[in-house]
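dumping this here before i forget
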Amino acid sequence: MVNKRFFDAWCERSGFSKTSFSLKKEDWEGTIDNEALFEPKHTLRLKDEADFVVLPKVVFFPLSQWYKCNRVIERKVISYSAGLKRRNTLTESQKLNSYSKTIGDTTYELELKPKFIYFEKISEKGERPH
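structure:
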């Protein structure tokens, strides 16, 4: 995943489009600022309004080598079969923005915003130690 602002600027400079599949390095001081996609003070949680582009590794790797990248964002692909139906808890908006594909009885979904559980130690008085 990369910040959409960087990717759009790079596409404009390099001439990269959905119809031209060649990658080329441009001599400019572009920086892949993925840090801006995260919630403040969180290292894993993306902002709800984060504007990003999902790229395959074969595209991201050269870009990250050519231009400074302050944060690599990798996400997992989750698969589940039709026999083990996944609970449908997605909103209509999430369904439209979903990165999933079904092949036969198996659905593959890119987990863009994984769920995290945070644990904190709280005293008997309900106070946090920090």
